[in-house]
Amino acid sequence: MGVNDVINVAIIGAGAMAREHIRAFASVPAVKVNGIHSRTRAKAAALAAEFEIAHVCDSVADLYARTRADLVVVTVSEAALLSVGVACMAHEWALLLEKPPGMNPHETRELIHAAHTENRRAYVGLNRRFYSVTQAALADLAPNDGVRFIHVQDQQNLAAAAAQGFPPEVVAAWMYKNSIHLVDYFLTFGRGDVIDVQRILPYRGGTAPIMLARVLFSSGDHGLYEGVWDGPAPWAVSISTPAMRWELRPLEEATFQRRGERARHPVQAHADDVQFKAGFRAQAQQVIAALRGEPSQAVTLERALATMTLIEQIFADDVDDLNA
Asked: Model's pTM, two decimal places?
């Protein structure tokens, strides 16, 4: 695929996330969104009219046949992602799957198996890795060899999730659906492999107010996961080293502090993170770069499985659950 060849993108789903992906991909040069499929055709037709998408299709097979797209972006519900993802892999396009890539690591592994069987490239939309402030922190920390302490603060509420109408099986897998937003920061900033997870205050199905887990990396980096259930708490991430400290709170904003300073310096978000859903345009650019055979930070299914596995290790009720 040449650098000037137009890349055709197809969309599955017609909700808010589909709309944001359409906006992001349509803004990338030499990219055209030319087809959409959703189980609710009226919603798909509305998005097609809004963004001048040529084809509104009735099935995955119809979407591929009419678009011959190079990439399909899958934005369906968590419960449907495995079946839709496997169906997509029967066709000769690459995939970008919205997170989480399955309801649990087992489903992620099934998707990986299908991708390998059909020889498909598959990526996962972990867009917070592509926030401009995340990228700024990574660049600033890169020359520093000091040990990193990564503190992730999460807040969830299962009763609130159920009240919003999410089905019981999704609520039960809420850590994969929602805490993935936070847990993925460990693998974004932690260096090396995860070699140990110690559950200091274990997860108790959302009934315990606080949970804590320590994460150790082969590099010597340390992480602390702090989850507050049914109580006020931020979504926040801090990365501390002997030379500097970065803090993302809220996650789309950042400050840094140098050794010997008291002041925290704010970091301005890139305009793309204001005009588009944060991280989406940079993520789209990275996926397109991968399709063109260029260097890319696009998150593969295999890399996403590492995050899903870490969630499993942090949230397991007891050690036997890890081997179930």
From this structure: 0.95
